[in-house]
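Sorry, explain these tokens?

***
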Amino acid sequence: MSRSEYAFIGAGKMATAIALGLKKSGIPAEKIHAYDVSPAAAKAFSRTTGVTTSQTMAEALAKADLVILAVKPQYAAAALDEARSCLQGKLLVSIAAGLTIQWLSEHAGTTRIVRVMPNTPALAGEGMSCYAGAPGIAEDDLEAAGAVLKSVGLAQVVSESQLDAVTGLSGSGPAYVMEFILALADGGVYCGLPRALAMEMAIQTVLGTAKMCRESGQSVSDLRDAVISPAGTTARGILALQKAGFKGTVSEAVIAGAERSAELGGKKG
């Protein structure tokens, strides 16, 4: 990690996950600071991470050189207005959904900004985060933001114009995968399996398949074809998915999510 101290504006679940990731990567708890307007959220953050939260925004930001904005979008303006005078000379990394770099710059009073679209598997240390820097941002600022995000999974630099597509795919994608898991389990129950067993099987099947796709070195198409025997059970199941328009429906879900992200971003612009 290239930064010496870190501060969170907001101490919710995603902030907690990143703080734990920072600690796992070797950052001591005393180098991490956090502030939340909710005493309950601050207490939960401290209890889970071992980080002592600050009583004021100014106290939390005083020593940090990298600040992570981790509040819900509707609270970001008020949070940045309060933090503005403390952000000069610091790198601001925003994980607040839908807030453009321009909007963040106007409210934060700085151009050292990295905008991030994380996803909820970061809570399990398996996140997929894509991030974009403000125009002209220094390479070491991008690297510092990337190091933070890699503490909770994979991270990839993209252009800001791609973040709506990122939102539709990896941002919303966990919900689509969970819907698929539920559908798998429902099918198992229909065929006579107990609900708990069907759910365990569905989750492990998705987990194992994803790991195989990641680690095998083969294309996903080739791996899929290896499961499909001529005139076999999987061939019949794939045909049923094709008849139902499965692939097209999933693609349309990604597109719909991206379009909605663009709509929300336009309202903030």
